[in-house]
Design brief:
Order of helices and strands: EHEHEHHHHEHEHHHHH
Oligomer: single chain
Largest sheet: 3 strands, parallel
Organism: Drosophila mojavensis
CATH class of the largest domain: Alpha Beta
Radius of gyration: 21 Å
Function: Catalyzes the attachment of tryptophan to tRNA(Trp) in a two-step reaction: tryptophan is first activated by ATP to form Trp-AMP and then transferred to the acceptor end of tRNA(Trp).
Strand content: 5-15%
Number of helices: 12
CATH superfamily of the largest domain: HUPs
Helix content: 40-55%
GO biological process, one term: mitochondrial tryptophanyl-tRNA aminoacylation
Strand order of the largest sheet: 1-2-3
Number of strands: 5
CATH architecture of the largest domain: 3-Layer(aba) Sandwich
Family: Belongs to the class-I aminoacyl-tRNA synthetase family.
Number of domains: 2
Keywords: Aminoacyl-tRNA synthetase, ATP-binding, Ligase, Nucleotide-binding, Protein biosynthesis
Shape: globular
Bound molecules: adenosine-5'-tetraphosphate
Structural class: mainly alpha
């Protein structure tokens, strides 16, 4: 049977890219009664300078948002990464199985390290922590957005390296990634980049918690081009195509249908239509986010139950790892 693991950073609130690229897939897998573990990976959120009270709030907001999106804790194990200490321990062990050149070539590291003068070591090794996250639960499948492909490849390499050195123990995980253009949602302001929580320009990112007014404003200001009709051509017209893609995904229509129905509209009119569709799709989610946020005790309960389940799996894996490596005196 498949064992599915994925994570999401509580760096900010969840955005449309996270939702359409990853979280929605998780809920679909859940519907198929798959074995799923989802982690709010807070230790990944401290690799860049951060504000502690904001991080704490973001953890709860992320939990509320995941529940609002349909993650069902009675079926899916939902927990906060730092409540299971074994993540750091396996990370340390995997650090000795990877090399600096391999980490230095990863595109996300290259992109982010450019934005800081003194690069934190955490930013450099965070893909190893990500591999530990996956391996701790012996996950066989990892549903992520296409931006994560290289990180999954590192996790595969580390599982193989561990198995080769210490004996077969970890499955080599498979990424569940949709390779088509549609799985990558782009920044509204810079459609050459993916939509991102840590975007310097918040107007490029639609958050699931945004009000209808904020959504209208952001889509209105989305960067398009000098052609006024609507067509889908991600290479030549990334801005408009990104809107078409978002529109198709939130309405469940095909790209062709969306483009066909927009034939009479110019870009400004089309943006209004996309805003309406996004607002409509997010309305019930936004209401549920607020409902869950108003019940912090419920969130704490759900996350504690999730941590307990996750911890049991993680402890079993780590006992075996320590024994294989000859660490400590027991086992
Ligand atoms: N723009 C995107 N389009 C499609 N999928 C995306 N994902 C992120 N951005 C897009 C997917 O969302 C999942 C959770 O992402 P994450 O928060 O763990 O890490 P990230 O990829 O680093 O996301 P951000 O929003 O860009 O955060 P920052 O700015 O902090 O780096 C992942 O499966 C990811 O693929």
């Amino acid at each position: 049977p498949r064992k599915i693991f994925s994570g999401i950073q509580p760096t900010g609130s969840m955005h449309l890219g996270n939702y359409l690229g990853a979280v929605r897939k998780w809920t679909e897998l859940q519907k198929k009664r798959e074995n799923i573990t989802i982690s709010i990976v807070d230790m990944h959120s401290i690799t860049m300078p951060h504000n502690p009270p904001t991080l704490r709030d973001n953890i709860f907001t992320m939990a509320a948002t995941l529940l609002a999106c349909g993650i069902d804790p009675s079926h899916t194990t939902l927990f906060v990464q730092s409540s299971v200490m074994e993540h750091s321990e396996l990370n340390w062990i995997l650090n000795s199985l990877t090399t600096m050149p391999r980490l230095a070539q990863l595109p996300q590291f290259k992109e982010k390290s450019r934005t800081v003068r003194d690069v934190p070591l955490g930013l450099f090794v965070y893909p190893v922590l990500q591999a530990a996250d996956i391996m701790l639960y012996k996950a066989t499948h990892v549903p992520v957005g296409s931006d994560q492909l290289q990180h999954i490849q590192l996790a595969q390499h580390l599982a193989r390296a561990f198995n080769a050195r210490y004996g077969d123990m970890f499955p080599v995980c498979n990424a569940i990634i949709e390779e088509n253009d549609g799985s990558r949602i782009l920044s509204l302001r810079e459609p050459s980049k993916k939509m991102s929580k840590s975007d310097q320009n918040p107007k490029g990112t639609i958050n699931l918690s945004d009000s209808p007014e904020q959504i209208i404003e952001k889509i209105k200001k989305a960067l398009t081009d000098f052609t006024s009709d609507i067509s889908y051509n991600p290479g030549m017209r990334p801005g408009v195509s990104n809107l078409v893609n978002i529109h198709a995904q939130v309405t469940g229509q095909s790209i062709d249908t969306v483009v066909e129905e927009a034939k009479q509209l110019d870009t400004a009119q089309y943006k209004e239509r996309v805003s309406e569709a996004v607002i409509e799709h997010l309305r019930p989610i936004r209401e549920m986010i607020n409902k869950h946020l108003n019940n912090r005790n419920e969130l704490i309960y759900v996350l504690e139950m999730g941590s307990e389940k996750a911890r049991k799996m993680a402890q079993t894996t780590m006992a075996e790892v320590r024994q294989r490596l000859g660490l400590g005196i027991s086992g």
